[in-house]
Automatic annotation (TrEMBL):
Coiled coil: none
InterPro entries: KFase/CYL, KFase_sf
Cited PANTHER family: CYCLASE (PTHR34861:SF10), PTHR34861
One Pfam match: Cyclase
Native source organism of the sequence: Orbilia ellipsospora
Name of the protein described by the UniProt record: Cyclase
GO MF annotation, one: arylformamidase activity
Amino acid sequence: MDILKSVQKGVRVFDLSVPMQNGMAASPSNVPYNMGVFRRHGDRDRTGTGGTSANAMIVTGDHVGTHIDALCHVGYKGKLYGGVDSTEACMGGRFKVYGAETIKPMVTRGVFLDIPKLKGVERLAPGYAVTKEDLEEALGDTVINKGDVVLIRTGWIQLYDDPQAFLGRSTGVPGVAQSGGEWLAAKEIRAAGADTIAFDVEELGPNYNQRPCHGVLLLFNAIHIIEVMDLEELARENVKEFVFVLSSLKLVGATGSPVRPLAIIDA
């Protein structure tokens, strides 16, 4: 197989996810990540031979850390994608349609758009709106094909170790403007990702909680959104195109799933 020959020749893999650990940034709308070891080595020797085991318990929201949004994540006027009634869809404590388990694994072409590089800055300013024009200029001569995944860097992940700064509740957070979301949707991509908590731009003021790209992509075009990605290594290595690999957990009826996306290039 050609793919096996490629692997044998050597590939380079970029891990695009953030570590999940206690104290990590989480949107106020989500249960924060918590993990604790509840059975330790030495608590019990079940065999009498000295062999032990340990187990941990993890509690987290489904949109914490690097994650992908399921199509049931957003609605408008009581409707989900395809006109499904949003109230009926989640009766019983989980969504009957469009849950995280329905997100098909992705092995496809990826395209990287580095907006700070375009602007000649380390990272975008708080509240900066990435427009259609920004995306077009960052794309240059590269072509986006139907079914591709497009990843957009703002540089904001540089603040990830400071949850208050990363969430930007008092400053705003850069992100994609509605015109950018519409431009992406017109390309008929499979998914769009970014290195911020909300993908959409978060500007201080009355529109702070507006998420037009979520509507444009998820609700009206069934295009998944991936958030809190670490795109810094791609930027350092000037990677523009790659094989993109992602699979969500089969969390039945969940509105999203933690993921560990990968970008793969020839070594």
